[in-house]
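Deliverable D4.2, example record:
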Amino acid sequence: MVYSLVDTMRQAYVNIKGTSDGLIVFIGAGDWHTLLTALEAKLDKTPSFFRGGRVALHVGPRHMTEAQIEQVGELLKRYQVSLWAVVSDSSETQRVATQLGLETSLAAPLVARLAGRPPEDNNEPGNEEHALLVKRILRSGQSIRQDGNVVLIGDVNPGAEIIATGDVLVWGRLRGTVHAGADGNDQAIVCALALSPMLLRIGHYMARSPGGEARQPEAQPIVPEMAFVHDGQIVAEPWRDMDSLYGDWRSDLLRRAANTLSTWF
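Output generated by the structure prediction step:
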């Protein structure tokens, strides 16, 4: 049987998972050059999502040479992504990675949990299996990048950013930068208990904060809001009112947000 290049790439297992500490690229068995091509295709699909991030490479039992690790590093560098760790069951791969100044281990429970999931072909932003739960304050200079949804319990301070291909839910004050639907999904939503981002992007659309929160007194009640794209622009409406005011697609947005939260609680 003769396989086309497309068939071969579909069999190449390259999966990217987001964590609060950065991205993990899982590379499975297969021809090395085909795997590199598959990785490049993923990077090229949404370059803005990966730009400025850092990556740990998880290769399982694969024996990697210095040249192969450098190939990955150079590929990532072209997309302004840095390689900081190579995780492998192979002692030879670990030795080579150490010689190159790279880390060779991550938090064991995290890697085991992510690596234990079966390969997922459905990477659509609405898939709750791709949700990342973070419980902390995101401070200036810190960033979260996720291939899927992000649920953050805490505040997002000015200078911090969240970039996700799916929805973004912040159980706190959102005052930093957020990009939901970073792979071009204009149907993504952003929810927060206090929605005052410096820069808000959903899919291909962008909106800047008028800076109103800084002038509001602290005693003023906080109204949870949901931002979404409607009629070619980003709009925000009180979260609590949407289900009672509308019986159309906007109520469905509220249900999507509730479903994402119910994945964790």
